[in-house]
Amino acid sequence: QREALRTHRENQIVPVGTISELSQNLTEFAQFGVEVSGQNLTETVEQLLTIQSLAMLASFAAIFWAMVSIVEVQINQRMARLTSAMVAIAGGKTNTKVGVSGKDELAKMAKALEVFKLNATELKRSNEALEKFAYAAAHDLRSPLRAVQDLAEWTLDDEENKFSEDGRQNMSLLLRRTFRLNQLLKDLLQ
Predict the structure, then answer these.
(1) Which of 62, 64, 110, 176 could lock onto 100 through a cystine, CB 3.0 to 4.6 A?
(2) Residue 68: partners with Cβ closer than 8 Å, 6 or more residues away
(3) Residues 6 or more apart from 98 whose CB is under 8 A from it?
(4) Run of H or E residues at 182
(5) CB neighbours of residue 178 within 10 Å
(6) What pLDDT is stored for residue 95 in this prediction?
(7) The pLDDT value given to residue 55
(8) pLDDT tens digits for 57-92?
(9) Nearest-CA neighbor of 146 among 182, 187, 186?
(10) Is residue 171 a contact partner of residue 152, using CB atoms and an 8 Å limit?
(11) What is the spatial distance between Cα 96 and Cα 126, in angstroms, rounded to a whole number?
(12) According to the model, what pLDDT value does residue 50 have?
């Protein structure tokens, strides 16, 4: 029985060794598979990070381009048109079209410029009317003033007129004031 037990034990040692060797091989194969999978995972993560970085860079570039375009179209071009209209209107070209619309601050400025344009047109018309009136009034006043001045000079120069000293001073005062009024009318015309 001992012999049978020993034989039986020897018979079991060979399969246990084989199983142990197979287990060792399987463990080594699994470790190799884990290492390869780890390397593959690392490479995939690196590729994913590269793709993600490129995608973010492209997104930032697209956002930057869009913002520059929006700023250029929505602000810079409209501001240039508004500035051009302001300069033209300030230069007296009150028939200049402003050409800026919308609901933002630039549009509010454009509306204010339209009001300014209307005021400038009205002021120009009013100044022209005032200038015509001043010209007509000055010319209308110069003729009677010149007649008064001439009469005063003739009266003083006439030797037959006998004035007292006060009368002569009053006539001289009248002449000085007519000269002064005549100068004021010349200034008004200028």
Answers:
(1) 110
(2) none
(3) 81, 82, 85, 110, 113, 114, 117
(4) helix 165-189
(5) 19
(6) 85
(7) 97
(8) 999 999 999 988 888 877 888 888 889 998 998 888
(9) 182
(10) yes
(11) 19
(12) 96
Instruction: Please state, in angstroms and rounded to a whole number, the distance separating the CA atoms of residues 44 and 46.
Output: 5
pLDDT digits (tens, 9 = 90+) for 169-186: 888 899 899 999 888 888
Cα 163–chain centre separation: 77
Read off the pLDDT of each residue in 115-122 and give the average, rounded to a whole number.
89
End-to-end CA distance of the chain: 150
Q: What is the pTM of this model?
A: 0.46
Whole-angstrom Cα distance, residue 8 to residue 16? 12
Position 152, amino acid:
A
Amino acid at 185: L
In DSSP notation, 104-170 reads SHHHHHHHHHHHHHHHHHHHHHHHHHHHHHHHHHHHHHHHHHHHHHHHHHHHHH-TT----HHHHHH
Tokens 């300069």: give the residue. Answer: 87
